[in-house]
Design brief:
By secondary structure, the protein is of the alpha/beta class. It has two helices and ten strands; from the N terminus they run H-H-E-E-E-E-E-E-E-E-E-E. A hairpin with a 2-residue loop joins strand 6 and strand 7. The longest helix has 10 residues. It is globular, with a radius of gyration of 19 Å. The structure holds copper (II) ion (CU). Copper (II) ion binds next to loops.
Length: about 140
């Protein structure tokens, strides 16, 4: 349903014919009962691939290990609480706007709930070469 909802925001700029075609593509006129399909992007699904490290991956957890954030770039829907876990023996933190974690020792976690869309870069202030980003959609 997400794609239908998003498409409907553009209806004002489309011709009636295109709008009708769009409605048909969404499964019928709005008055008809609509059965929600299975979620297209279950949030509990683990990040599919370590091979896609360049592209932000959907995730709600970031692991800190070997002096790196993993995944380094994540994408989450607004309202998501992201949790960082430090698995290194070295202490790390999450520093950037609006992220200000305390120093995390091994095994400690820190969470932040993202309410506004945008891209948020951060570093570990103890090891500034450690970088990460969160894209909120
Ligand atoms: Cu660090």
């Amino acid at each position: 349903m997400r794609s239908c909802a998003r498409t409907s925001t553009y209806l004002g700029t489309l011709s009636a014919a295109v709008a009708l075609a769009t409605l048909a593509a969404c499964g019928g006129p709005p008055a008809a009962p609509v059965v929600a399909p299975p979620a297209e992007h279950p949030m509990s699904m683990p990040a599919p691939a370590a091979t896609a490290a360049v592209q932000p991956v959907a995730a709600s957890t970031v692991t800190i290990a070997n002096f790196a954030f993993s995944p380094a770039a994540v994408t989450v829907p607004a309202g998501t609480t992201l949790t960082w876990t430090n698995n290194d023996s070295a202490p790390h933190d999450i520093s950037g706007e609006p992220l200000h974690s305390p120093t995390l020792s091994r095994g400690q976690t820190w969470s932040y709930t993202f309410s506004k869309a945008g891209t948020y870069g951060y570093i570990c202030s103890i090891h500034p070469n450690m970088t990460g980003s969160v894209t909120v959609t």
